[in-house]
Design a protein that fits this description.
The protein contains 2 helices and 5 strands, in the order αβββαββ. The protein is an alpha+beta fold. It starts with a helix and ends with a strand.
Length: 134
């Protein structure tokens, strides 16, 4: 009897732990696109890359775009760090945030063929333009 109770309690604990871990997971998918005709630059230090909300008044050159697709609820600092790292790979001195929206990215269809329901899936997209000062 004790053995069954112990196994049941252990299984319940493992299940609770797994659900807790999955509920707290956050990820940030990052990709970048280089603009055509822009020369390649050596990578810069991610710690030196500025995050700007408006284009700077200083002369600069656009290198490409950094696209983030966060899931869960990552902190602003984590998302900014992901932008810095990717922009630094492109040789950027700064990244200008140009797009931050939640939009529909897909649909989930559930149920048997005679009683299907569809619900939308929404995802956040953030786009920053990597720039290099002249």
């Amino acid at each position: 009897m004790r053995d069954r109770v112990w196994r049941g309690a252990a299984a319940a604990s493992i299940l609770l732990l797994a659900v807790g871990c999955l509920a707290g997971c956050t990820t940030i998918s990052v990709s970048s696109t280089h603009y055509l005709g822009v020369p390649e630059f050596p990578a810069t230090d991610p710690g030196a890359v500025e995050i700007l909300r408006q284009p700077p008044r200083r002369p600069h050159e656009r290198l490409g775009e950094v696209i983030l697709a966060p899931s869960g609820s990552p902190s602003v600092a984590e998302m900014e760090q992901a932008i810095r790292v990717e922009a630094a790979r492109m040789g950027a001195d700064a990244a200008v945030l140009v797009f931050d929206k939640t939009r529909r990215i897909g649909t989930v269809v559930e149920g048997p063929w005679w009683s299907r329901t569809a619900r939308p899936i929404y995802g956040r997209r953030i786009v920053a333009v990597a720039i290099r000062y002249r």
